């Protein structure tokens, strides 16, 4: 076997068997593995072929049933095994099928309705940890075997119920991306109506050892009445992947549910997100903190504008279409900042409090409107003057809060946002952060900012108010 590059391996496992329907020389099991840093959404391996589009595989035409065990309710269901749609990141439960936590796997049956020639069986999985490896036994049957039982009980040995053991798969090498290919060195695996996957957990040290199965391909034989019907070939969808210039982050953009936005995502959105990721990370540092090295944006019909959870961003394609020439890119840069923020992970120290929600949203809008696109005047005084009956309350999320942060940064401490972000992420946020940076509480600053806004709007300002700062609304830290 050739020596492979470091981050993946192929393991051939040979199992000599004699099938009732056809004589075979050797069933060959090849396992390819890529570590997470080297994995790609397309599941590309050096030896195992990539998943084929759903219309071209016999698996998509089969009736698929869980014979024993329980599907985990956090997974995407059995349809994820044959839909041709692959996960775009390692920890994406809804894009995979897996058995319930705390159980030792289960059995999955494929019924093709009649015996067909099967040339190859390929299985794929992806997870950061022990849900990535694959451990299963593959059985097959025509349905005409003596004593055949189509649905053997969980405790029954399929080999004693008319089923033939085709292969054993035991890939146990930790997290990453796996591809398994089962073939016969003499030709097709055989003609079968049924396949049975008897899956086991990869480990039982905790409740989370059941494999994230991303796709199962059943490749039919070529030609003959038993072959699967030919269909027009449809290329498998591969999400757009771009990288930050310094290699600090891989960004995956999935437009499979909004293909008309693919060109915009590739030509307009991706270059901005890639360029700005290291800039944003530099604006929001913390001691000992490393921003995520990958995140995913899925663009699909939905509600609202966009939302971020961990390293997953969902964006409403309907809204984006209306804002392609205005706010679309800036809105997703706002979500990219949420990916970098990663608040709530550190344990709060004594005396610290949870950061207010308005501040969590005001920080991304401050960076967006005052550092990324200040010329759009989306939150500065020009924007304020366009608002009808604007009520200046500093503790409002998004644009009002962003305006307040910009004013306080210009007048008191140009590093204020950096300090606030660090305190929130590190679990050290309290009123003391404002006082140490500006000499005043947030409420005192808010009252002063309100007077400034009212005076700028030409409204009545209480006596004794400080005059507005001479500084303009230019960014405190100019964008580069």
Please describe the topology of this protein.
Layout: E1 8-15, E2 27-34, E3 63-68, E4 106-127, E5 135-141, E6 164-170, E7 176-184, E8 190-199, E9 213-220, E10 240-243, E11 250-254, H1 262-283, E12 294-300, E13 306-309, E14 312-316, H2 317-322, H3 328-341, H4 357-372, H5 381-386, H6 399-411, H7 416-425, H8 431-438, H9 442-456
Parallel strand pairs: 11-12, 12-14
Antiparallel strand pairs: 1-2, 2-7, 3-4, 4-7, 4-8, 4-9, 5-6, 5-8, 10-11, 13-14
Helix pairs in contact: 1-3, 3-4, 4-6, 7-8
What does this structure look like?
The chain is of the alpha+beta class and 480 residues long. The chain has three domains: 8-220, Jelly Rolls; 239-341, Zincin-like, CATH 3.30.2010; 343-480, no CATH class. Helix content is 23%, strand content 23%. The protein contains nine helices and 14 strands. It has helices at 262-283, 317-322, 328-341, 357-372, 381-386, 399-411, 416-425, 431-438, 442-456; strands spanning 8-15, 27-34, 63-68, 106-127, 135-141, 164-170, 176-184, 190-199, 213-220, 240-243, 250-254, 294-300, 306-309, 312-316. The strands form two sheets. Strands 1, 2, 3, 4, 5, 6, 7, 8 and 9 form a nine-stranded antiparallel beta sheet that branches. A five-stranded mixed beta sheet has the order 10-11-12-14-13. A hairpin with a 6-residue loop joins strand 10 and strand 11 (250-254). It is elongated, with a radius of gyration of 28 Å.
């Amino acid at each position: 076997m050739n020596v492979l590059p470091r981050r993946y391996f192929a393991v051939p496992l040979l199992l000599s068997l004699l099938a009732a329907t056809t004589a075979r020389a050797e069933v060959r099991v090849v396992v390819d593995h890529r570590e997470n840093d080297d994995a790609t959404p397309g599941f590309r391996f050096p030896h195992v072929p990539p998943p084929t589009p759903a219309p071209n595989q016999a698996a998509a035409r089969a009736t698929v049933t869980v014979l024993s065990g329980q599907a985990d309710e956090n997974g995407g269901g059995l349809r994820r095994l044959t839909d041709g749609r692959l996960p775009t990141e390692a920890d994406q439960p809804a894009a995979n099928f897996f058995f319930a936590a705390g159980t030792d796997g289960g059995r999955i049956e494929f019924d093709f309705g009649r015996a067909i020639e099967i040339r190859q069986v390929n299985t794929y999985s992806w997870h950061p940890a022990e849900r990535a490896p694959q451990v299963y036994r593959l059985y097959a049957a025509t349905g005409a075997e003596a004593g055949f039982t189509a649905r053997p009980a969980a405790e029954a040995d399929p080999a004693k119920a008319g089923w033939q053991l085709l292969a054993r798969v035991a890939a146990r090498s930790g997290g990453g991306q796996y591809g398994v290919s089962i073939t016969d060195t003499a030709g097709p695996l055989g003609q079968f109506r049924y396949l049975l996957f008897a899956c086991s957990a990869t480990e039982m040290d905790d409740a989370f050892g059941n494999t994230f199965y991303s796709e199962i391909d059943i490749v039919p034989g070529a030609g003959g009445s038993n072959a699967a019907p030919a269909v027009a070939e449809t290329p498998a969808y591969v999400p757009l992947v771009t990288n930050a210039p310094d290699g600090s982050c891989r960004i995956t953009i999935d437009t499979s549910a909004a293909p008309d936005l693919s060109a915009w995502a590739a030509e307009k959105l991706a270059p901005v997100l890639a360029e700005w990721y290291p800039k944003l990370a530099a604006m929001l540092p913390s001691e000992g903190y490393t921003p995520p090295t990958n995140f995913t944006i899925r663009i699909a019909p939905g509600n609202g504008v966009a939302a971020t959870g961990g390293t997953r961003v969902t964006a409403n394609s309907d809204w984006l279409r209306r804002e392609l020439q205005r706010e679309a890119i800036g809105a997703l840069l706002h979500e990219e900042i949420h990916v970098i923020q990663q608040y709530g992970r550190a344990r709060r120290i004594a005396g610290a409090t949870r950061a207010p929600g308005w501040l969590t949203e005001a920080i991304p809008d401050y960076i967006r409107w005052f550092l990324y696109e200040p010329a759009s005047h989306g939150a500065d005084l020009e924007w304020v003057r366009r608002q009808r009956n604007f009520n200046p309350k500093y503790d409002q999320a998004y644009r009002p809060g962003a305006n307040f942060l910009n004013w306080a940064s210009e007048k008191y401490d140009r590093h204020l946002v950096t300090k606030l972000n660090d305190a929130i992420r590190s679990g050290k946020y309290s009123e003391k952060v404002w006082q140490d940076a500006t000499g005043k509480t947030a409420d005192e600053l808010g009252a002063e900012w309100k007077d400034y806004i009212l005076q700028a709007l030409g409204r009545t300002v209480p006596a004794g108010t400080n005059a507005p700062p001479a500084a303009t609304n230019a960014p405190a830290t100019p964008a580069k």
